[in-house]
């Protein structure tokens, strides 16, 4: 593998180039600018990013991070017109949060891949002076050939300022103008009105709208097994309501006749207790797991790596130091935990928790319990799934894929509010032991332990 230093360059072969962005810490967005020999874009269409994912009929394409890889830009140099001198690749922090800089981003790495050639890597220097964007790589012409250069230059003004310097018009946030006071106008009836000229009656064509850097809603998606998706949230939005619903139709008529009472449980860790551990949130752990890591809120009381509180009693194992919302403890949206269950549905349908104050949330584990002898049928056979939505255009469905029978518990999805982008929804689908009534446990670092919580039978 070839590795470039800052300012280094290397010849490219023929064919499409895929440039991948890798980083650790705060999220970074990847964009591309198609630039002419004068150092400017030809039009706003020459900016390729999450809101404008293609230029020149697909010669340059933006691909979001997915199961196929990290966020990436694909460039087909042979398909670019002659007036495009280079394609500049840019990394940038969230444009909606001006407080984010590259100081919180670690191990930034670009990896460029071409068919039939060894990968090329570039690691820009650490950016610690408030930079919010960085020029990473550029693919540029040299005669009839193309080359790749490593840049690594930070930019304090962020993506909007950088794009503007290259000639892109960036949509500004709308500012409400104060209403002008009504003016009393007097007219002389004997004075003729001014004539209407042709230029006044002919309106000029409206200019095309400038690209907006505001990230679009996620839309409606369904997770694959083990998959995850992030919903962009403003953590300080007091009007925001995230709803998480357990939906089930009871499955077949025979299943419904035997009873179809499923219950939604929301196990939660508040932000004040949440720990960013060494394991990915949603990781399944065994009994005896002790969370270790940095507090999500460093100013919160309690040391990192604090052990969960253990509560023991007859017929019960340990419970956690935080809490659970379910049919006996509905919670509240006006007070802590700012999570509330809408009630107990005894028949096929839906149970929903409403989650507000995302700044107060750490992790929320959504589980289902099969009550009243329903443990003999699989949760999937009842058509069970979890649906999470922000009510603003982003909806994530978390289905079940396994036919695990004689199980009373399933942990379906974890909502991680410590995710820098907003809320990350992880597909879990972990089942309790066969014929075991012990509740799952959500640890302070978002790890999930099955068969570790208390036993509580539901009576019909």
From TrEMBL:
InterPro entries: Stress/Tellurium_Resist, TerD
Record field: compositional bias (Acidic residues): 173-186
Taxonomic superkingdom: Bacteria
Residue spans crossing the bilayer: none
Region entry Disordered, spans: 173-217, 283-317
TerD domain: residues covered: 25-166
Sequence ranges of Low complexity compositional bias: 196-205
Annotated Pfam families: TerD (PF02342)
CDD domains, alphabetized: TerD_like
UniProt family annotation: Belongs to the CAPAB/TerDEXZ family.
PANTHER family assigned to the protein according to its UniProt record, in alphabetical order: CAMP-BINDING PROTEIN 1-RELATED (PTHR32097), GENERAL STRESS PROTEIN 16U (PTHR32097:SF4)
Name assigned to this protein: TerD domain-containing protein
Organism: Streptomyces flaveus
